[in-house]
Amino acid sequence: MNSTSLATGQRSLGAPSIEFPLFPPLTRGCPKTSTDEIAYPLEVVYDYARVDRRLFDQEPGTDIARWSPLLPPLHVPTLGEGGTPLVEFDGIYLKDESRNPTWSHKDRLNRVTVSAAVAAGAPGVVVASSGNHGASAAAYAARAGLRAIVLTSAGSPPAVQAFARAYGARVVSVPVEARWPLLREVVDRLGYHPVSNQTVTHTGHPFGPEGYKTIAYEMFLQLGRVPAAVFAPTGYAELLYGVWKGFTELRLLGLADATPRMFSCETAAGGPHARAIATGAPAAVVELGHSDAYGIAGPVGGHRGVLAVRDSGGEAVLVTDDEMRQAQRDLARQGMWQELSGAAGLAGYRRLRRDFDGPVVCIATSSGFKDMGVGTETFPLLENPTLEDLI
Amino acid sequence: MNSTSLATGQRSLGAPSIEFPLFPPLTRGCPKTSTDEIAYPLEVVYDYARVDRRLFDQEPGTDIARWSPLLPPLHVPTLGEGGTPLVEFDGIYLKDESRNPTWSHKDRLNRVTVSAAVAAGAPGVVVASSGNHGASAAAYAARAGLRAIVLTSAGSPPAVQAFARAYGARVVSVPVEARWPLLREVVDRLGYHPVSNQTVTHTGHPFGPEGYKTIAYEMFLQLGRVPAAVFAPTGYAELLYGVWKGFTELRLLGLADATPRMFSCETAAGGPHARAIATGAPAAVVELGHSDAYGIAGPVGGHRGVLAVRDSGGEAVLVTDDEMRQAQRDLARQGMWQELSGAAGLAGYRRLRRDFDGPVVCIATSSGFKDMGVGTETFPLLENPTLEDLI
């Protein structure tokens, strides 16, 4: 199944009555509702009445084009993203997103956003990212025959910088404060399509979370029902919101009669969504302390995360690096080696210590190979090893 | 579908009339046909008459337990191995095995071999490996609640050593010549189950290639037919033989009326199967020069690779590091970042320059994160970046 997109436009998350055409994607947030303090994202609207429910009779395999009616138009050939397994662990489930083409969940987003760049006729994509997002955008740009510029900061692991470079992207490490102005210049002067955020609170690409909806579709088919709760590692909350939106669509289409509670699992060193929810703000920017979970550690939150948590009856959970390390270690001791930030979902579930009336899914976002410090330790050769050395 | 194994015994590849019971797995090769110079492996025999062909009506998704009737008994819970995508590339297909639980094809083998360790009641598994095999065995041992000892050599990248350690294995770096004697001691004195080779020419675990058969089943369902040719990165040729065996089973079961030609793609620095085929030997051991493709560079070949190439009408192809690097680079420039040895299949296809009457599949075995040197290069921060620096 790979039929035509039923996307019809963009709607403001600042005021749902405000709609815009589907193109161009409004990559600087809603122009009508955003203020100097809060930028509101947009989301894609579909003609749900025309969705053939047999779409959900198919298997939850690779290539998200199988969900084309519920995605913006796809113009980049697949790298086989999606179709990730749901692995049982200790009475709950892990959705192992390290099993995507560039070994993180970001591939679902970038198949969609780089497709928008192709539709826009852009010569390339530009992204500010120190990790998975940049490499994934580079991979899909390469697949599409577009150039890619990745603005990274000095803090990312050398292996991860090599990763984005491998796909042929121009990767430049710049001071953190230079990233957003440069990105804007690349967009304005070179006509590159931006696939990361440009606004005061996070809005990102309006099409991005659509790719993440496919995680909800897969979970639904894999479990044979919607889960009771979903715990997601959360930085900007595009993942959290996308999964939430997917479940709301399943209910809207009459395929499910419930939706899960959504839990935003953020680093305790920051936690902008936890702050926004606690203060009743539509979004927040916080001071950021130190965290090795660089994949989710950022000061800037967005309105999407607040909506997903609030509308689903969930919570924002703050987890420390130590809690993530314990979760990471326990996952590895069951055969799943995650990046530190990738274990935030499990860490959040454990910190909350709550019983749910149904299956719990923690999203595990990325491979352990991308962690800080991996590969920096060398291990000595044992010259005259004996059996005792092995035990 | 996760029904009972129809495996009935082990058969010698030295003389097909010689059979043994299914247990214990003969991990030191065929005791009747092996000589001081050549060790013959065993393979698993099934009651094919009892195979319900509806087995192949299912989707080629994750968890190889879906093929249980045609596998030895599985006792380790799945990590979601298999179900990898077939990605179009330049008129051919790449089977992207970097999408397995530990990001290489080895997971298919280790689900099966570690299950044998559980069946044997062993307290742990032991493996001599500098790369993917050791980490994958460690992951499945962890999943099974068994201990794991990984004997590695100083040559493997630090990130890959960290990888196996993450799963809780005891990883010890020992001189190359100490690996096999130590492994034998761990087996004999500690009762650990060996999941790597112990013989003069390669025999390995008799159950191992059975896991790789599932790649053939998936390709068949993904293409809707058998391919005309399969190119596989080849070290010990367990992968090559397993995939070949899967295709012969599809023909035996009346599901396919042809089998592909199988191409062993070996490093030109060694190439024991190319040597054996050229000289008419059942297996060979060669001098090994230098290659960065450490995943497939070894002096020791086995009889399985000779059988797969010969019986399929294929060839052994030697590829240089430069040819693999070019293939690796070209794959990455289409969004697929492979380990150097993982690109050997594509390099072999290109070196052969032959037209085939049907689809060609190159197996791509592993993620680029595991390559030599990844993460050793640091990239300077650009203090005052301008647009010109980005182009």
Protein described:
2 copies of one chain form a homodimer. The first copy, chain A, has 391 residues and is of the alpha/beta class. Chain A has 3 domains: 53 residues, no CATH class; 184 residues, Rossmann fold (3-Layer(aba) Sandwich); 88 residues, Rossmann fold (3-Layer(aba) Sandwich). Chain A has 10 helices and 13 strands. In chain A, the strands form 3 sheets. Chain A has a 6-stranded mixed beta sheet, with helices on both faces. Chain A has a 4-stranded parallel beta sheet with strand order 8-7-6-9, with helices on both faces. A 3-stranded antiparallel beta sheet of chain A has the order 2-1-3, with no helix packed on it. The first copy, chain A, is globular and about 70 Å long. The termini of chain A are far apart. At the A-B interface, strand 4, helix 2, helix 3, strand 8 and helix 4 of A face strand 4, helix 2, helix 3, strand 8 and helix 4 of B. Chains A, B: One of its GO terms (molecular function) is threonine deaminase activity.
List keywords for this structure.
Ser/Thr_Dehydratase (chains A, B), 10 helices, TrpB-like_PALP_sf (chains A, B), homodimer, Rossmann fold, TrpB-like_PALP (chains A, B), 6-stranded mixed β-sheet, 391 residues, lyase (chains A, B), 3 domains, globular, alpha/beta, 4-stranded parallel β-sheet
Through-space gap between termini of chain A: 53 Å
Shape of chain A: globular
Q: Percentage of helical residues of chain A? A: 25-40%
Task: Give the DSSP E fraction of chain A (strand runs of 2 or more residues).
Answer: 15-25%
Q: Do you know the CATH architecture of the largest domain in chain A?
A: 3-Layer(aba) Sandwich
Number of strands of chain A: 13
Radius of gyration of chain A: 20 Å
Oligomer: homodimer
